[in-house]
Amino acid sequence: MKNVVAGLAVILALVAAAATHTFGQKLKAEEIVAKHLDSIGTAEARAAIKNRMAVGTVTVTFVSQKNQKAEGRVVMVSTDAKNFFGMQLNSSDYAGEKFTFDGKKSFVGFANNGIRSVLGNFILSNDWIVEESLLGGTLAHSWALMASGKGKLSGGGTKKIDGKEVYAVGYSRKGGSDIDVTLYFDKETFRHVRTEYKRTSSAVIGTNPNQSSGFSETRYKLAEDFGNFKSVNGLTLPHSYKVHYLASGQRGTSEVEWNFDLSEFAVNQNLDESTFVGEAR
């Protein structure tokens, strides 16, 4: 009897070990992305969409300026490798934003009177995130992960964001970049829930050692968060979208947050090609 019990114990231990190996093994970045694409919709549903438009409202909060706010409308349009991201705001100091990519050239518009916002300057310095359609995540038909070969993937480990476990996948531009990009996917649904962009600018070198010691590096972080996923024409897309910008360094801290509520979606529209063309920089 003792031998039978011992034998059963060994068998159960082996089964448990096999289960742990099967269900607890680390997924590769490419496997996570494949499951993520299926979370958007079936291959047939994704292929049926040729272009996409999302419209909604936006509230901008200037956190580092005692929470001053501006409100307005947002429009996002995309097809193939082309995309348009525009905001129109009710502020005399911040009229809006315009980011476009026509398939060859990107454009970053002025926020007001020939001056770009902190978001505009960040994107201008890293315009490839618009050209490769990272900005906006799955809200864009041209979403970077929808087309293979755009960037290099790495990682696949897990971490927690707001108490929820997510997969973290690194994304790097072919040819290199001075910005670190990490994509986060819900561990249960594989939906894309966050993108983080991090960049560090070296301290300015002074005219003498004493002066140089007074300067510090500047750290930039841009985060996009996606939520309130709903079905749209066979695709599961986020209806809430948040962009958070934070820069800290020698000149202090600058922090701004954009909250988008997307309420209208349209697909397979007759789009004017001029939509994706911006003026000269």
Structure description:
This protein has 281 residues and is of the alpha+beta class. The chain has one domain: outer membrane lipoprotein receptor (LolB), chain A (Clam). It has six helices and twelve strands. A twelve-stranded antiparallel β-sheet has the order 5-4-3-2-1-12-11-10-9-8-7-6. β10 and β11 form a beta hairpin.
Offer a concise description of the structure.
The protein is an alpha+beta fold and 281 residues long. Helix content is 20%, strand content 44%. It has a single domain, classed as Clam (outer membrane lipoprotein receptor (LolB), chain A).
Total tally of structural domains: 1
Shape: globular
State the helical fraction.
10-25%
Could you give the count of β-strands? Answer: 12
Mean pLDDT: 87
SSE blueprint and pairings:
Blueprint (H helix, E strand, L loop, with lengths): L1 H23 L4 H12 L2 H6 L2 E12 L5 E12 L2 E8 L6 E6 L4 E3 L9 H8 L2 H4 L19 E11 L2 E10 L6 E7 L5 E10 L7 H4 L5 E15 L2 E15 L2 E16 L14
Antiparallel strand pairs: 1-2, 1-12, 2-3, 3-4, 4-5, 6-7, 7-8, 8-9, 9-10, 10-11, 11-12
Protein traits:
12 strands, 44% strand, 281 residues, 6 helices, outer membrane lipoprotein receptor (LolB), chain A, single chain, alpha+beta
